[in-house]
Amino acid sequence: MSQLDRRAPLIGVYPGTFDPITLGHMDIIHRATKIVDHLIVAVARNAGKGPMFAAAERVELVRDELGQINTNGAVVEVRDFDDLLMHFCQRVGARVIVRGLRAVSDFEYEFQMTGMNARLDPSIETVFLMAAERQQFVSSRFVKEIGRLGGDISSFVSPRVAARLATSFRARPTSDNPSE
To answer: Is 25 a catalytic residue?
Structure first.
């Protein structure tokens, strides 16, 4: 048995709010499973972002979506977290953080975040995956806005996610006051 055969499984964390999970997120998850042995999709409970779905609903949506992709033999699990990402990574034994980049504007923020994370724990590396061309403009924020205003979101999210969004939009009447 070679040295590589005896190494510990490489655990990666793909953190995000996933409110909702998009086809772009799914693309990054699929591609990350080609890099790590075990991927934890870490759903942030970040209430400060004002998520549409509760953390438990977002975890459920992500789990439902994972059943639809090829994980390339990697173990993939979903967990929520509400502490510092680096503390979460340390707790689960992750050695890699996976981040998706859509545009140059993402890079500036991610560059700063990576620098801070490296200062907190230099043993955990950050890996950036560029969004697939067809997903570069997709964001959860845009998907929610388009869907809320009655637009077609079928090319951005799965049918299951689109249905959950439609149900949520019906339950929350729109307001003329953007601060509500």
So the answer is: yes
Q: What is the tally of structural domains in the chain? A: 1
* Spatial separation of the C-alpha atoms in residues 170 and 152, rounded to whole Å: 15
Specify the CATH number for the domain of residue 98.
3.40.50.620
Least confident piece of the model among 9-18, 123-132, 143-152, 171-180: 171-180
Q: Is the pLDDT of residue 156 over 80?
A: yes
pLDDT reading at 175 higher than 60: no
- Element holding 143 (H helix, E strand): helix 140-148
Q: Is 102 a catalytic residue?
A: yes
pLDDT at position 104 is 75
Catalytic residue among 30, 58, 99, 140: 140
- CA 165/CA 147 separation, integer angstroms: 7
Is residue 104 domain-resident?
yes
- Selecting among 49, 91, 141, 172, the annotated active-site residue is 49
Q: How many Å from the N-terminal Cα to the C-terminal Cα in the chain?
A: 61
**Is residue 160 flagged as an active site residue?**
no
- pLDDT at residue 1, rounded to an integer: 44
Structural domain boundaries enclosing 59: 4-134
Residue 152, domain member (yes or no): no
Catalytic status, residue 49: yes
Q: Is residue 70 domain-resident?
A: yes
- With respect to residue 143, please indicate whether it lies within any of the assigned structural domains: no
Catalytic residue, chosen from 102, 139, 148, 168, is 102
